[in-house]
Amino acid sequence: MNEWITQLRKGLLEFCILNLLSSSESYGYEIVQKLKSMEVLVVTESTVYPILIRLKNDGCLKVRAVSSSEGPPRRYFSLTVLGEQRVREMNEYWSLLCKAISKLQKK
Amino acid sequence: MYSNEIIREIKKYLAKVAEHLQNTSLGEKDEILQNIETHIYDALKQRFPENPTIEDLNAVISEMDAPQFYSQVGKLDKDAKIPAKFCKLPVIGVLWAPFGIFIILSIMCVQVVPAGEIVKVSIWQWIGRFTLLPLGVLAPFACTTLGLMGISKIRNSAGRLIGLPLAVFDTLLYPVIVLDGVFIYCLLMFTRGFWIFLGIFLIILLDIFIVVFTWKVASKPLNLQLNK
Questions:
Q1: Distance to chain B for A93, nearest Cα, Å
Q2: What is the ipTM of this complex?
Q3: Whose CB among A11, B38, B90, B132 lies 3.0–4.6 Å from B128's, allowing a Cys bridge?
């Protein structure tokens, strides 16, 4: 059971990140904090940052660096057109999946 | 401003993380480290806005993942990646296609001889009749069919097959050639001067529309389309 939950969380994390960024751009720390607040997901930096970088390399996210007086520049992530398209498709598929599963559960 | 001690400690943590990021490419590694570094500074700013001490930094780092956690990054992707194969059908289609074009060009070069004149047929022409001619005549149908079959196979392969652009090319090549041929023939027959140029411009626009539309339909995820 635990293994299944872990795999499910991993699969859903990309979906959650894209949805989180669909409303507005955000930076790493803020993204991690927001995802951490959803306790059921159980996320940490070591899972979030690699996914952010992979999504960026896939062309779904773009990065805007804003210089800071202290420390390195803060990196703001936002969706590209491809990212917007992907999150739209994911949301459509997610609702279909939920409907299908709920039908099975009723049986 | 942060003390040198704090900066040194942050670098030390990042170096430990870097040691465990063995399964990522160099670029990915740098980006992950940059993000973790910014994360630490943001956490410090948020939690200890005024002159954070080394203890404050340790408190922040202790709440973060231990460097060992990063050894799993990229490992699963590496293990799970099955190299995709190029779909053979569109390749056969694109190799077959030139035979059709060869036949079209040959028809355009046909020499009409007076009735009764005996035409000497060479051995190569005889061989061509039974090899190139059937291949060429069938090429438009074969190329289009193989393209369509290729699109279907690639779309249903869940990423195991690639070559969708080639399959779309095969599918559209002959239909677009025929369509353009008919339009250009009509243009040359029924219009003159400026209208010919306007017509050709509209044909090009139509071709672009057909290609873009077909590509959008072919590259759309299968699950969504089936359930709509």
A1: 6
A2: 0.84
A3: B132
pTM over 0.80: no
Query: Inter-chain contact B224–A89, Cβ cutoff 8 Å?
Result: yes
Judged by a CB distance cut-off of 8 A, whether residue A57 touches chain B is yes
Average pLDDT over residues A21-30: 92
Query: Which candidate from B37, B73, B223 shows the least CB-CB separation from A93?
Result: B223
Alpha carbon distance B154, B220 (integer Å):
12
Which pLDDT does position B212 carry in this prediction? 94
pLDDT digits (tens, 9 = 90+) for B65-106: 888 888 877 665 555 555 678 999 999 999 999 998 888 888
Q: Interior CA angle at B146 toward B140 and B152, to 5°? A: 140
Distance (Å, rounded) from C-alpha A12 to C-alpha A48? Answer: 11
CB count within 10 Å of CB A42 equals 13
Q: Return d(Cα A95, Cα A103) in angstroms, integer.
A: 12
Q: B207: exposed, middle or buried (C-beta count within 10 Å: 0-12, 13-18, 19+)?
A: middle
Q: Which of A46, A82, A90 to mutate to test the interface with B (most CBs of B within 10 A)?
A: A46
* Residue A64, min C-alpha distance to chain B (Å): 12
The pair of structure tokens assigned to A7 is 């795999």
Residue type, B95: L
Q: B13: closest CA among B30, B39, B37, B42?
A: B37
A vs B: CB pairs below 8 A: 75
Pairwise CB contact (< 8 Å): A28 & B42? yes
A70·B1 Cβ contact <8 A: yes
Q: Position of tokens 């709920």?
A: A102
Task: For residues A77 and B165, give the distance between their C-alpha atoms in angstroms, rounded to a whole number.
Answer: 31
